[in-house]
Design brief:
- By secondary structure, chain A is α/β, with parallel strands linked by helices.
- Chain A folds into two domains: about 110 residues, Rossmann fold; about 100 residues, Rossmann fold (3-Layer(aba) Sandwich), CATH 3.40.50.
- Helix content of chain A is about 45%, strand content about 15%.
- Chain A has nine helices and eight strands.
- In chain A, the strands form two sheets. In chain A, strands 2-1-3-4 form a four-stranded parallel β-sheet, sandwiched between helices. A four-stranded parallel β-sheet of chain A has the order 6-5-7-8, with helices on both faces.
- The N and C termini of chain A lie close together (about 10 Å).
Amino acid sequence: MDNLSVGIIRVFTTEDQEITNSHGNKIEETYNIRCINKCIHQQPKGIYDEESETKAIPKIIELAKEFENHHKVSCIAISCAADPGLELVRNEVSVPVVGAGSSAAHMAKTVSQKIGILTIANEVPQAMTRILGDSLISWRKPSAVNNTADLLKGYAIENSLATAKELMRDGAEVIVFACTGYVTIGFGDILKNKLGVTVIDPVETEGNALSFILRGE
Amino acid sequence: MDNLSVGIIRVFTTEDQEITNSHGNKIEETYNIRCINKCIHQQPKGIYDEESETKAIPKIIELAKEFENHHKVSCIAISCAADPGLELVRNEVSVPVVGAGSSAAHMAKTVSQKIGILTIANEVPQAMTRILGDSLISWRKPSAVNNTADLLKGYAIENSLATAKELMRDGAEVIVFACTGYVTIGFGDILKNKLGVTVIDPVETEGNALSFILRGE
């Protein structure tokens, strides 16, 4: 697996290389995969509505082609829980492409039929609900958490823990993050330690799928 | 992960410990998980029709309870591509339960939308088709291969390779085994080496899901 690398697409723009690399670093540590991390251009706020998604998709496709043609990666991940452009990217490149959202939803369904989603928005990505179907028994958003930046505020961990407890009261046996921001704040480990619940983290499942593909190369 | 073990349920009866352990051994080698392997009782022909499935399911549930209560396993796998009794077992034990068939179908969907199934029967397990939906673009059975025993015959590899090529001509980008018998004959490696196609092996995906769960324990 030593010579193989994967391309990690971040669907926003930042000049901060540490932020750009954060998902890839987690995947490298967990699965020993060499990751090349890149952001799409000129979209510092990322994807937050239909218009911003429409604007982002051609850039995601362009970046995927660059990963395949220039960096010669073995596979590509679109590292966002909403899987923006997944099907379109698959039509444009020949290497396997994984989306963080669908990888998380599929892993959740593989291990449980009683799934709760922790999100930051007033809706759950279709990329996840389509797959989860009847197994999605509840989804909730912590109070005063409305975007990724809110997850960095002092109260975010406490509020998110309270919401996770509610998901468990609703009957959820596993909790899926519908935003990779929960990964950034290390909320998966907190949740496992405090509540002992199975956590499905989209960056981890994305890495798991990439690792599965590479093992077969 | 050292003290954690998983229970592997084989849905047929054999006195041959090497055969009983074969799936668990593969999972141990690939994922470094301690597996306890057990067969259901008094069903040497396994599951081959509705009646034999109905007969097997209470035994699968009983074995799952034994794994949880006596062996104190951390999770359980029903190691058959048809996932017999999966939902019922989940209702009866408190540890996570994985089915080989659904784990393979979910991994296939995670990495591709153009999926071919290689089977040994005249149908594909519902446990797989339900998940694959429109992404299942073709399924085929090698000529003169009608049961697991046929896979051990001299011609089986050659016929199966010919059928895999047909699946690729149909447009399949990944090939999923709908029978764990293909795993037993090591056909995954042959297929990857000869045709360079991504192969989804239900024992490997089952092990991958178990490994994912244990990593969170």
